User: Fold these one by one.
Assistant:
Number 1:
Amino acid sequence: MDNLDWVQELIEAPDLEAMGTVLDVRLQANVGRGSPADERLLAERCAFEHEVRRFLTRAQERGYAYAMHFPQMPTLWVDFVNQNKAAETSIARLNVRRSYEAGRREATEATKEGWASEPKAALPARRDGFDPVAMIDRLVQDAVAQRVAQLVPANVAPLAPSIAPLAVTAPTQPTNSDDPTASNSDRMSSLLREFLRPASRKRQHTMKGRGEAEAVVQFAIDFLGDPRMNELTDDKWKLLDEALPDIPNRSNIPREAAKTLFQRFKYAEDRGWSELTRVTTTTIKSRYWGGLYKFIDWTIQEKRYSGARYTFECIDPENLAPLPRDAFDDDELLKLLTQPLFTGCKNRMHVWQPGGYLVQSHIYWGFLICILTGMRPGEVGQIKCADIRTDNQFFYFDLRPFDARSGRVALQDLRNLKTNAAGRVIPVHPLLIELGLLERMQELMDKGEERLFPEWDVYIRKDGTQRWSQPLSKSWQYAKKLLKLSRADLTLYNTRHLMADWLDSGGIAQRTRDRILGHASDVRGRYGRKGILDPQIAAKIEALEPPVIKRMREILLAAKNRADAGGLTVLKTY
């Protein structure tokens, strides 16, 4: 088709915002033209409709608030779909009429050629709008209704006149079940849908972790054939237990064969393990066993399963041991910080390509705060402007769930921390201040913005829980491939171990080290002033500047000074 240039634009779009721009413009144009008049245009619009649905699904999965960026899109989308539905109905009706007329022409020709009997005289066209297609529809409906009435027992109320299947099948009876009255609602697939159904506002806290359990419960459904819960004997649980370690990871499996755990399992079963690797014991114990336990406990609590919770135990000797996390090497850290994101990039969208712009985005600050404070990526995304505080001598990130001196707060207003020990206070490194973090905070506060990184979108899981680390984690995965960093134990979380190494090399006491990193300490460390540092300790921490930080300062401030002098154009993301 010659009107599908937008497909190439979508392929070249670097992110969801660029894709949304292409789709929004196209939606406006299509809605403005009205319903398509022929099947060719309808086919083009259906292809476009499919891509919009994919975009909306991806936006929801990644927590991208497309309606904020494209406020007309929801309304345009509804109008566009309604136009397509109207066109489908109109074109389908036109095709029926065309077939009817073609049949009449063929019958006339056959009569003229002498190989068909002479038809009865056609009724004259009526002036009251008689529609032969509608008459045929009514005749079919009447015939079907009579047929169904003959098949339905006399003590059953007759069906309303409508198009219905010509055959009536007996309801499926349960098999291999102690309870012959058990219904399909007791099958694992039905229970999984109930398990994942969003809870009410007051029960939302009970949903934590359910979305993560979906994949392994679906594996159990596929592997066992979607049985009813009370059909699950110890033998079936054992079969499932033995199958879990035989699920390979995604490496070397085509994408279309790796969409579900069961597809990966069957791929290994059919192709063998010569090019595949097994998952780690941590994955089996935390994700697979943990997810199944959560689901089984729920079915027992809801009285949908009368058996006892099975204890999983199978681990294959070829399952991989988990990798310990290590700190960044100096060379790896400097390799990251010499990239265009920190030294001058192409534009807001292409921050990893060199150019004449300095874009101090949430990704820019996210990496630097993780490196210079040891914060978790998910903690950085939640920082509010008011969380940067000062005692008139030092600036601090206040990561406590709330300020107890200001009184109690609602649960919904608490910070989403990993553990209770994660509430802490961390000095703002002087390099962050020199790069303009406080200026950013002040500008946002002047605009009435609450969050320090308003462009940082939170990812909402299916169970309603939030994952703040998503944007930075995905950027790190891209950067790792770009930089060809192949070390298996190198993750974004290694920035915490990097800070731990710096604290250790600076002779910082263990209790203070735990406070800075948000690790659980002894009981005494969890009371009192909630981890506020002594000014002398704070000064010692801020003075930490190993050789690699001195090199970081040279790289980062060189770009900042160029921007201040006009050598780089500053682009703001808020």
Number 2:
Amino acid sequence: MQKPNVSAPGPGPSGSSDALLRLIADSVPALMAYYDVPSLRCRFANQGYAAYNGHTTESLLGLTVQEVIGDKAWQGIEPHVERTTRGERVKYLREQVLPNGETRMIEVNLIPHFGADTTLQIGSFVLITDITERWRAERTVRQSEERMRKFTEATDEAIVFHRDGIITDGNEALTRLTGYELHEVIGLSIFNFISPEWRAVALDYARGRREDPYEVTICHKEGHAIPVEVVGKTMPLHHADYRIVVVRDITARKQAQEREAFIALHDTLTQLPNRHFLMEQLSQVLSLARRRHGRAAVLFVNLDHFKTVNDSLGHHAGDQLLCNVAERLRLGVRDADVVARLGGDEFVVVLTDVKSPDDAALVADKLLASMHGVFTVEQLPLTISPSIGIALYPEHGNSADLLLRCADAAMHHAKESGRGNRQFYDPSMDASALDILRHERLLREAIANNAFELHYQPQVRLADGALQGIEALVRWRHPERGLVGPNEFITFSESRGLITPIGRWVMREACRQLKEWQDQGLAMVPVAVNLSAIEFRQRDVAAEIAAVLRETGLAPHYLEIELTESVLMHQTGQVLDTLNALKALGVGISIDDFGTGYSSLAYLKRYPIDKLKIDRSFVADTPGNADDVAIVTAIIQMGHSLQLKTVAEGVETAEQVGLLAGLGCDLIQGFVVSVPMGSGTARDWLERRRGGDGSALAA
């Protein structure tokens, strides 16, 4: 078919004009073409347009749009062309598949061309720009943004996008963290939401394009500050960089750090300052007093008989009591004063700006009075008293350590002065404190070197004087004072936590010695060993005694344990279980110093007891003291009614022997029989008894 005659649009230009127009059209980067309307046949195309569609500039002339781009593409753009033929200017994007199979994205502009009569359209210009690279870049960004959106929605960390500080976007976590809806923050400066004291830091961070984490606080919509950790990162995009900021709420971490810092400086039970914090605060108080030429006081407070609460009611009750004491101490002083707990039942009060010693005394008296009120612990009413030592700055010392030591020494003097009182430090107290430390050191050396020995005192039957038992009594071979009796170190050992190793040595040595005598045909009677309340509660007594009996080979029925009433005065399952375990072994159980305790006698029926030992204080003044005779009589009668044997201690005269025999006492022990004897003397005594008539009273 012959092509229709076509020419360039507009008035016919000269040849040189055609060449210039062609040169310009082929030089521009856009693809250009001109189509007649309404025939839609091509009258002009530059080289780029022709080549893009697989033609030359000559082969395109006269072809319709559909013939140029193909039927499939025509179906997609026909509506746009239809609009252009109606005089509309149209712009659209479409994918274009090149003859080589490559897919490109193009932007198409259809521009209507009107003739001299502006109402009559004679043609349409086509301007096509290949935007494939830009389209791919934008698609990548859109995909990246979509992935980012998914990530930001999935995280609990707030994410903010901003450009030059102006917020452009954020995630849901941002609204949860700040209380603001997203539309309330977009367009505002991100720095408006940072606490004023941190804004300069945040500005420097952003301007420096830093990307390391740092901490600031932000303002919640409701007005409170939230500590956060912030990490920013600069994201380049088409020469208009933006920042992405990740904001993490670190409230829990800050609280944990504050808690750790608090615990490092405070007692976890009472929440009072601990020793370390006390010394810091006391040093500051003294420094201020030194500059102002003022005074301060240190009160060392120790609870009297606090251990009884722990032993009888348990450590939970003891802890509750300590918390109550701490609260009364806090309420008893000013806010400027310091109350601390050193540990155990020891507290320290630091009084600032003390005018005179009388001021410190008044506060100490106030604290003493506050402790006299009843404490309710485990729904039980308790009363307790403190002993208070007072040291003054600058009179007694100018350093925290020295004042604390002086107050401690004064507190011990208060205990020695009857407890429940307050005492000011005096230099003479240092000697006493040093004596205590020296005494403890010597006793520890004695334990390490087994510098103890046992003395033995016989127990005989009143009816015929027959030997019925031997009590083992410990002595300390003091390096300076010679042989020291138990009254001078047992109670001290208990207060210093040294009684357990001493008790273990006594038990093993007594069993070993008795087994040796029995192997020689002597002393086929039990040996009695005293156990303190502390030993009984802190050790697995039954298991240890069983081990000692196995080790020494002594038969269990030849061992008798003597306990004071304080062990039995409180009903506890542990006490009953231990006593039953001892009875199951075959070991005898006696109550020592009976009548001096404070408990109900109901325990005599609850526990598996064999003997009652009447305390020597009731025997000493008999038969001349009627009251003591009545007490001894009552104890003997009670023992008989409960099927218990009675043993009178400290019997020294024939008159006492006669009284006790008449009352029906079973056994006696004392100088009338024999003084306590060392192992060698005791063996000789036993040997003489074996060769004599068998009556210790006759000897």
